[in-house]
Design a protein that fits this description.
- This protein has 653 residues and is α/β, with parallel strands linked by helices.
- The chain has two domains: 3-220 and 264-376, Peroxisomal Thiolase, Chain A, domain 1, CATH 3.40.47; 410-628, Heme oxygenase-like (Heme Oxygenase, Chain A), CATH 1.20.910.10.
- It is built from 21 helices and 15 strands.
- The strands form three sheets. Strands 1, 2, 5, 6, 7, 8, 9, 12, 13, 14 and 15 form an eleven-stranded mixed sheet that branches. A two-stranded antiparallel sheet has the order 3-4. Strands 10-11 form a two-stranded antiparallel ribbon.
- The two termini are 31 Å apart.
- The relative contact order is 0.11.
Length: 653
């Protein structure tokens, strides 16, 4: 949930760009080619990123002209000068950067020292692109809580020192593409914002003030591998401190800045889904956004972001976008502050206008957002009521939603976008359950597999039963849907027997299916689905099928190679998992047809709400089932009367 602010205003903004602008044809004087591949890579990268000039804090000889702390101090001085403010007013300094000039102490303390500033509270945020937003949030929270009247947020980057040709001598001037291409992407610079309470006027904009309405940040580092890093070898197996010396670390490539560009499309995917959640929960209205400041590292990604927003029906018209990437370059954590500062210096604002900022961070996947609104100084301050709190939304594997909202049939885009948000939260939580962690960390053994199967078989057994109950509860207008569900249930009614056979081939010792027990999560899920199926026209069950079939078609195929690697069994011991990995794609297509039938009968709004609510409840209960899997369930003692299983069936549950 975003952090909402009622009393935080942006008083002034400044930036500092070292040296003169360096055009593309003069880059080699600062970032010298490494080998014959360099020129080709440089041409490709510059053709895509759209950067025409940038700034470096080193000279053509590679000698540092400004330290990173000096860049930050320069931005702070510019910010104060533009606002006619004194440094003595500032009692909190928050900095954001991927790295200062020293490994310790903290960067904010080094900036304070560079400024010879009075004693104050300091916070150093270490990160990558979103670190600047984190610094802004830290400063704003200090004001909102009443601990400070004025606070300074600053972000500064100086990657040029890492790109000097001499840095690659230990490797014979050879390096991998992931570190090679960044030399033509990143550059130096700093930005600063002075935040205050008391509704101050915005510097350079008489009669106006600029309110920070909220900041929202969410990291997905538990779901994805490292994308951009400094300090690990190319294979991420060793850190720079694990070597005997700095020279050894450098020779092994552990001191080279890298970005795995193959992962970047997923960064924008999670960012847009998070944005969709902000819209859904009332934090931002795309129609009210007058200015969209998006930190993209390359102009190549503009159509990617724009296309995702368009297909989710959440677009912001291109003419409202603003960026200075072309002439300021990509300055990492400083980019959004430099962008916002230059925007405010060059644009004429009007009361009521909103400025929406979006910063994706590739480090280990993070998304940050800010919303600011222009007010007239003679207007009464507006108190923002926070929207109703939504459920907390949100890998080495990237798990896509069962249906891509970008490919939605006409009229289903909004529904699939909201379902995708539920899916991303669900798969993210599933990925951190004890069972999945065992599998991912290669701690999954045969007893664990058998225990999972023992709890899963009785759950799968119920699948076609609640589907048939639901079909029987559908009234006349839904008879086509009832027939479709009956076909689906019929195809899956023997799934539990396939799974039980796999269990026996793997060495399972429980002889009778009736002796197996669902875990507490499975019991809760089973009760919920049977209860819903017994109600009149339970079309919400399509939301349950979305989660259940999606698990089989998306999550299981990602886990299966790891399970096979950990549990040495013959191929025919995995028939159920293999079957669902392939066949549930057909089931998902059938699901889409069923949704279109329901929409035609019920009306889009009401049908969509039932499907979404059921999907959310099913995801929570299925997650509970995953969480209990590692517990050992008791088996039914011998001699218990056996249930009639003739009509029992499957369903991936």
């Amino acid at each position: 949930m975003p952090v909402s602010f009622q009393r935080v205003y942006l008083e002034s903004a400044g930036y500092f760009m070292p040296g003169e602008p360096i055009p593309n044809d003069r880059m080699d004087a600062y970032i010298a080619p490494l080998n014959r591949m360099s020129e080709r890579i440089k041409r490709r990268i510059l053709a895509e990123n759209g950067i025409l000039t940038r700034h470096y804090a080193i000279d053509a000889e590679g000698v540092t002209q400004h330290t990173n702390a000096q860049l930050a101090a320069g931005a702070i001085r510019d910010c104060l000068q533009r606002g006619g403010a004194e440094l003595s007013r500032v009692s909190l300094l928050a900095s954001g950067s991927s790295g200062g000039d020293t490994l310790m102490p903290g960067f904010a303390n080094m900036i304070q020292g560079e400024l010879a500033a009075q004693p104050m509270e300091t916070h150093s945020v270490h990160g990558i692109c979103a670190a600047g937003v984190s610094a802004i949030q830290t400063a704003a929270q200090g004001i909102e809580l009443g601990a400070h009247r004025s606070a300074m947020a600053v972000a500064s980057e100086m990657p040029s020192r890492l790109f000097k040709r001499s840095r690659f001598a230990a490797r014979g001037y050879e390096t991998d593409f992931d570190s090679h291409f960044l030399r033509w992407m990143l550059s130096d610079g700093a930005g600063a914002l002075l935040l205050s309470d008391g509704s101050p006027a915005l510097a350079g904009a008489p009669g106006l003030r600029l309110k920070l309405k909220w900041v929202h940040q969410r990291a997905f580092s538990g779901d994805y591998p490292v994308c951009m890093q400094l300090g690990l070898t190319e294979d991420r197996a060793r850190g720079h401190l694990d070597f005997g010396s700095w020279a050894e670390a450098e020779a092994a490539g552990a001191l080279s800045l890298r970005q795995d560009i193959r992962l970047l499309p997923h960064l924008f995917d999670i960012g847009i889904h998070e944005y969709a959640g902000l819209v859904r929960d009332g934090w931002v209205d795309p129609k009210r956004v007058d200015h969209f400041l998006c930190h993209y590292s390359s102009e190549k990604f503009i159509p990617v972001v724009e296309d995702l927003m368009n297909k989710a029906d959440l677009s912001i018209p291109r003419e409202r976008w603003w960026s200075n990437l072309a002439w300021r370059g990509n300055t990492g954590a400083a980019s959004i502050l430099v962008m916002l500062a230059e925007f405010l210096h060059t644009k004429t604002l009007k009361p009521g206008e909103q400025i929406f900022c979006y910063v994706p961070e590739s480090g280990r996947f993070m998304a940050a957002y800010m919303l600011l609104e222009v007010e007239a100084t003679d207007a009464a301050p507006v108190t923002m009521a926070a929207p109703r709190a939504a459920a907390v939304p949100d890998d080495d594997f990237v798990i896509a939603p069962p249906h891509d909202p970008a490919a939605a049939p006409e009229g289903l885009g909004s529904l699939l976008t909201e379902l995708a948000a539920i899916w991303h939260d669900y798969r993210s939580r599933v990925w951190r359950t004890p069972l999945i962690r065992q599998i991912r960390e290669r701690r999954f053994a045969l007893p664990d597999y058998l225990n999972w199967m023992e709890q899963w078989v009785p759950q799968v057994r119920e699948g076609s039963k609640w589907m048939r109950e639901g079909a029987a509860s559908l009234s006349g207008p839904y008879q086509m849907l009832a027939s479709l569900i009956d076909v689906h249930a019929g195809e899956e009614q023997n799934d539990f027997n396939i799974l039980f056979s796999d269990y026996k081939k793997a060495g399972g010792t429980v002889a009778q299916i009736d002796d197996l027990r669902r875990n507490p999560g499975g019991e809760a899920l089973n009760a919920y689905l049977h209860g819903l199926a017994a109600t009149r026209d339970p079309i919400g069950l399509l939301g349950a099928i979305y989660i259940i079939e999606g698990t089989g078609q998306r999550i299981v195929p990602a886990l299966l190679p790891l399970i096979k690697a950990s549990v040495k069994l013959p191929p025919d011991a995995f028939r159920f998992l293999e079957y669902h990995g392939h066949n549930d794609e057909n089931h998902l297509n059938r699901w889409l047809a069923a949704v279109e039938m329901v929409m035609a009968v019920e009306g889009q709004a009401r049908a969509a709400r039932q499907i979404i609510d059921t999907a959310r409840h099913t995801a929570a209960l299925y997650l509970m089932q995953f969480q209990h899997i590692t517990e050992r369930m008791p088996h039914e003692p011998p001699g218990r009367p056996k249930a009639n299983t003739a009509a029992e069936g499957g369903g991936f549950l």
